[in-house]
Amino acid sequence: MGHFLRGRGGNIGHLRSCQPSGKKLFLETGAYFSWDGRCSFMRVLGTSSSTKLLYGGNDQVEHLKPISSCVSLISACAVHSASPRAHFLFIVQDVDECAQGLDDCHTNALCQNTLTSYKCSCKPGYQGEGRQCEDIDECENELKGGCVHDCLNIPGNYRCTCFDGFMLAHDGHNCLDVDECLENNGGCQHTCLNALGSYECRCKEGFFLSDNQHTCIHRSEWGGGGLGRGQEGLSCMNKNHGCSHICKEAPKGSVACECRPGFELAKNQRDCILTCNHGNGGCQHSCEDTAEGPECSCHPQYKMHTDGRSCLEREDTALEVMENNATSVVDGDKRVKRRLLMETCAVNNGGCDRTCKDTSTGVHCSCPVGFTLQLDGKTCKDIDECQTRNGGCDHFCKNTVGSFDCSCKKGFKLLTDEKSCQDVDECSLDRTCDHSCINHPGTFTCACNKGYTLYGFTHCGDTNECSINNGGCQQVCVNTVGSYECQCHSAYKLHWNKKDCVGLQEAYSVTCGTSPPLRNKQQKSNDSAFGDVATIRTSVTFKLNEGKCSLKKAELFPEGLRPAQPEKHSSVKESFRYAHLTCGFRKRVPGAPGRPSATKEVFITVEFELETNQKEVTAACDLSCIVKRTEKRLRKAIRTLRKAAHREQFHLQLSGMDLEVARKSPRASERRTEACGVGQSHVGNQCVSCRAGTYYDGSQERCILCPNGTFQNEEGQVTCEPCPRPDNPRTLKTPDAWNVSECGGLCQPGEYSADGFAPCQLCALGTFQPEAGRTSCFSCGGGLPTKHLGATSFQDCETRVQCSPGHFYNTTTHRCIRCPAGTYQPEFGKNNCVSCPGNTTTDFDGSTNITQCKNRRCGGELGDFTGYIESPNYPGNYPANTECTWTINPPPKRRILIVVPEIFLPIEDDCGDYLVMRKTSSSNSVTTYETCQTYERPIAFTSRSKKLWIQFKSNEGNSARGFQVPYVTYDEDYQELIEDIVRDGRLYASENHQEILKDKKLIKALFDVLAHPQNYFKYTAQESREMFPKSFIRLLRSKVSRFLRPYK
Fold it and tell me: Which domains does the chain have, with CATH numbers?
């Protein structure tokens, strides 16, 4: 649909088309218009194709871009012809080039749509005609954007910053002093004194300020003498050395004075003169060094205070300026007068708090980043960024004037974007845990291997299991590193549960075959006939005067029962239906005094059973004859074996192996190479036993797994023992059972049985058993009863008094006794105390917790280039009444830099615990550092002497975590650089900087460069930015680059 043109007299023109050029419009009346892009009063000179379109004057004509299409915004223009009757109003449909991106405005310009076109204008903070815009550098004029210190230009705006020691005022321009003493006492050990732009630490009477300008060193009485000379000449320990700031020992017993950063040494080589480099010279605004010292001045919008340092805002003179301007233009043009009377940035900054810009409609105020313009259009108010999405901070957000700071929870570190927090993986650091380390968000935990106990948060010490109920051992408990073992007295051996003891049986028995039940118990034992079968049973006993029962593997010989050295008639070959061999002993009567003690007589009894049947009967020999012949063979075999009884060994072949039955006691002169024991085989020159869970099969000459329903908990065995309760196969475990406990059916705590398996009995009154599978119960002792049958701990015993933690119940005296030093007890009603793990001990008796077990060893590693010292038991509390000394003696031409990330010493003990660093052990020697209190803010300093003697001492009072202090030695050529860095207050100014000195990884990287400067180049610029915040890099760049990358 077209648009219409309206004219006088009812003449209506119809807009037939809108050509893309936007230059021509066609009317139904035939009138021809040439549109030049102006919206004004126009006249039609004719109706032919050559008709010209003219326009009348209009003060507010705006040039618009030609129409390119017939869409979007509708605008109207009045058109006048030469004839009054040809007065038309035609309507043109416009295009919004701004919305459709058809404009060519600059990136930093605003696009405003107009009738049939658009216009470009630069954004605030930029200048240009709209198609080209350039950033306005508000900081380049002499007013520096109104900033009293530094002005930082940013695209489209600017920001004021303040020198160290100052903070931005709420107006965003002025700088006010920061009182550093309000936070953590400024890091000062004693007294903090605030000054304009800086602060100063001072010490109490009897102390003097150390080189790090924060901690105080006790002045010895010797050093207070008038002469101040001793064995080392004039000493810096002498308060009369005359140095205003820092004293350094010089050759030949003299001293040399130095000044803190920002001061210059005076001509007298003692005093220090303040410069503008320290706290802005004490000036609030501008500082200039002169021969007489810093000279202060104020920003043009301020005036000097009477103190000559502070600056006050000037009185408002805007009204006077406006009045003068009005008087001077009374008779002028109204438009000029109106413009002069309007607000202007030239007068009082247009009333703007911050940036002022003159526009055609008046002044335009704007605010820098971090501030927002208020409803009055003039005032800038600080934006609390922390109120919106926590300022983008992961953890904590702290609002500041014009900005904000992010910080992280303990255990996290702030990344270089200064907003994100990343977990510190403590497990990736050296020496975090003795054994295993498990990292968690914000923290970590240490774990110890089996048989060890955790102490001091990160350390592992051997657990003395024997200190807890004798380790559960029935008789003897022996502690070993990382484990323990139960042992038994003589005549006993260890039960399968490895804790109980059972009677030692040197006798044994071996059975082969099955003996049938006798029909008549009164039947003779040597002749029994049952119909067609006759059973001949006999037995024989052999005696060895001196020897022992020994079932061991021997060398293989021909089959049969025979002595060790085979002879022609010394072996017996019979097919016995049943054979049973037992070996036992009994002691002889003790001999006369002076003779050897009683010896053992070994008795070997062998029972045989042979069967004869009708098949063996012949015409010449009936069954009775056969029986007699068999008896004769047996008597002959007995005679043969009896002869062998006096020989060295008996042998028996069983399960494909030749076994030694008994052995005579060897004479002292006899040395024989014994064969491998039962269940062993030769591997090279060694005998190797079958492991637990297997047995040795002689026929296969190898170890075989114990089958289902059996077990073997010992090595080198030839059989497997049947599991108890074979009637319940569901309790049986898989093959290869190495312990009887795998058979199932164990007696539970509070129960016992002869073998530790069901059926079980409850522990009787007065006894208890805390473990499963035991053969007995422990007595409460002292005649104490238990509350019930089946007691499981000593706490079930009815003691006469209830013992509190730190005590144990003595069943003899029936009193509670304090746990001795080196032990602790955290529970009520116990009859023992737990030994401290490893080499730890307690400070006193009556300890109640493992945390009171402390290692008294002084920690640390001392190297030529890097190292550290550590209080005993760190990071656990250090022990009482301990003393540690370390000596750091670096290689030639190297000096010592020390960082104390944090130190924890109790202040309630009136300096009973202290750490001191001196040149030597003499109290008169040069002292570098001394403290006796907790100091969580890190500090770095250089040693005042080429070597250091360090002492830590604690008394019997309160304890604390102590310290871990790293150090690095550096080339003495860099002495000036290092001292310039560590004495600069900006190193400790922010929490982020402080966290760097506590970050072990970052300290390691810094020390790596300091110890070996060439390593500086192995860290790329990107790596440095990722490791350290920008502020820290800015702090170090100018200092480090001067030494390592000098500009030419």
Answer: 425-470+478-485 (2.10.25), 685-724+732-742 (2.10.50.10), 860-1044 (2.60.120.290)
